[in-house]
Amino acid sequence: MNTYNNVLELVGDTPLVKLNKITHNLKGSFYAKLEWFNPGLSVKDRVALYIIEKAEKEGRLKPGSTVCETTSGNTGFAVAMVCRIKGYKCILAVSDKTGPQKIAYLQAMGAKVYVCPANVPADDPKSYYETAKRIAKETPNSIYINQYFNEENIAAHHSTGKEIWEQTDGKVTHVVICSGTGGTISGVGRYLKEKNPNIRILGVDAYGSAIKKYHETGELDSKEIYPYKIEGLGKNLIPSATDFSVVDRYVKVTDEDAAYKASEVALTEGLFIGYTGGAVTQGLFEFEDEFDENSVVVTVYPDHGSKYMDRIYNKKWMEKYEYTNHPLQEIIDEAKIEYIEEDTEVRTEPYDFYVI
Ligand code: PMP
User: Fold this and answer.
1) Residue 93 pLDDT more than 90?
2) Where are the beta strands (DSSP E) in the chain?
3) What percent of the chain has a predicted confidence (pLDDT) above 70?
4) Separation of alpha carbons 332 and 30, rounded Å
5) pTM for the model
6) Which of 130, 126, 131 is nearest to 113 (CA)?
7) How many angstroms is it from 180 CA to the middle of ligand 1?
8) Which of 64, 94, 199, 251 is least buried, going by the fewest C-beta atoms within 10 A?
């Protein structure tokens, strides 16, 4: 029979799809790795599975143990999913910047969730880092995934790098990847630089994050840090899960550009990407001077747009931040709702976070 023993056997081996329209003004050919084809709908399935299975092999996890983590959502969901299959408890600390729908996803997968303030320093006892650390310390038979400071987060992406190398028959010349914990860009970068040191490893950071400046100067500049909306990209600290030595260059993108670009990818390519997918797509344009006709550029779309129906795909949310001047307004207008009968209305309560 052609079957899988459980959902975890579906992690990895995600497809690489050509971008046909959105990049037409850029030189080179462009491909996107669709990480939402992982069963937990994000790139983070690779990390959760790799780290948990390593802990099992080393005897640090046994049935009934607890796995703790800090998360912007995707890692938490992946950890919760792996824990369900393997019989572990899952405790997660998230920041209050995380959308309510993402938190509901975590609960649906059986995780216990602590919500912590986003705008406190990372070393504040109330931060989500400190909260997860404390809970892991207080809970017997537990492990702390610690994705920002765990080298295994980089090793987990050996698979991502290998897949990109093999899927392009070794022809890849550039990768453009967003940097949160830095696990993806570092793991892919290490693998590809070993295969061919000329491959350019290009990182995308957010305005409001300290990563790009740190890469350029070696300093954590607090003036770079301020609140921003993109979840999962950039950081107010320097994660040791980022191997800055394999990254050639970073650019920064704005909340607004990333939000528009996500919709633009949906409307031009039919790919329903998350907010950081929009950020890396904007990054392709910021890195324009890197590419020529022979470039084979791979970007990674970390997760799926369905997780952002209360954010970038929500008209009210976009209007709240005055993101109203979309370059593809004509297509958006075509997608307006029309009522067959005059007195019909789409029910908005309690679903008012959906696009109406
Ligand atoms: N996009 C999303 C939606 C994420 O959740 C993350 C993880 N924080 C990233 C991008 C960044 O990936 P990495 O942590 O491997 O740098």
Assistant:
1) yes
2) 16-18, 29-34, 66-71, 89-95, 112-116, 142-144, 174-178, 200-206, 249-253, 296-301
3) 97
4) 25
5) 0.93
6) 131
7) 5
8) 64
What would the 3-class secondary structure string for 5-20 be? Answer: CCHHHHCCCCCEEECC
Name the amino acid, one letter, at 151: E
Q: Whose CA is nearest to atom 11 of ligand 1?
A: 180
**Are the C-beta atoms of 217 and 156 separated by less than 8 Å?**
no
Ligand 1 centroid vs 167 CA: distance in angstroms?
22
List pLDDT tens digits, range 8-58.
999 999 999 999 999 999 999 999 999 999 999 999 999 999 999 999 999
Q: What is residue 265's DSSP assignment?
A: H
Render pLDDT for 310-346 as a digit per residue (tens, 0 to 9).
889 998 899 999 998 888 878 877 887 788 887 777 6
Using CA atoms of 306, 312, 317, 318 in order, give the dihedral in degrees to the nearest 10: -150
